[in-house]
Amino acid sequence: LQAALADALPAWEVRPPAGGLSTWVRLPAGPGGPGAVGDHFAAVALRHGVAGLPGGAASVDDSHLDHIRLSHSVPPDVLAEGVRRLAIAASEVWP
Fold this sequence. Notes:
Blueprint: H1 2-8, E1 13-15, E2 22-26, H2 37-47, E3 53-54, E4 67-71, H3 76-93
Antiparallel strand pairs: 1-2, 2-4, 3-4
C-alpha cells in the first residue's frame, strides 16, 4: 500500500505502520486550507468505492483532521484498485 500510494499520490505523507491493520496518511491541505480535509476526502473517496476513516474520527484532540486511515489488510490486487480509485477521488479535491 505504501509503495502504491507513493507512486500514485506523491503529495501524500504515508506513515509506515508500526503494527495493526491500518495505514495513516496525511493529506495535503484542501482548497480551504488544512482544516477537516480528512472528513471531506473520506466522503469523496467513498463515492469512488473506497472507505477510509477520517483522522478526526480517531483523534481525541482534533490533531489529525488532515489525515485518513486506510486498511491494508486486503489482497494486493484490491489494494491496487483502491489506490487507483483514491487517485481519481484525489483529482476532484486537488485538481
